[in-house]
Structure prediction request, 123 residues.
Amino acid sequence: MATTPISLLAAIDPVLRDALSANLLMDQPGLVVLRHELDANAGTLRRLVLDAGGIVEDEQVYLEHPCAGCAVREDAIPTLQRLVDSGRWDAILFALPVGGDALMLARALEGAVAGRTSPPWPR
Prediction:
C-alpha cells in the first residue's frame, strides 16, 4: 500500500516561504502545496491549495479560535486527508502559517494518525 509523503515548511518570511513553495512546484511533478495564512483580527484562515497548474482551491475559513493549533485541527488535517484521498498528487507540502511552530504542528499531525495499524493516509 503506497503512502503519500507530507513535508512541513516553516518560515518567518512569507515571501521566502512562497518563493520556495513555487520553486518546489516547478521542480517536483506531482507535488501539491497546502498553504495556510491566519488573520487573527478577522478570525479567519485562508486555505490555498496549489499545484503546478496553478490554484486548485482558495478558501476563507472562519475559525472559532484563530491560532495555528486550531487551524491545524480544524482545517489542515481534514484537508490533508482529502488531498491524499483524491490520489491526484504524489507528495504534499504543507506551508505553515508564517511564524507557525513547526514542532507543535508536526505533533498535531502525528497525533492525527497515531493508533493506525496501516501507514498514515494510504492511497
In short: The longest strand covers residues 31-39. Residues 6-113 form a domain with the Nucleotidyltransferase; domain 5 fold (CATH 3.30.420).
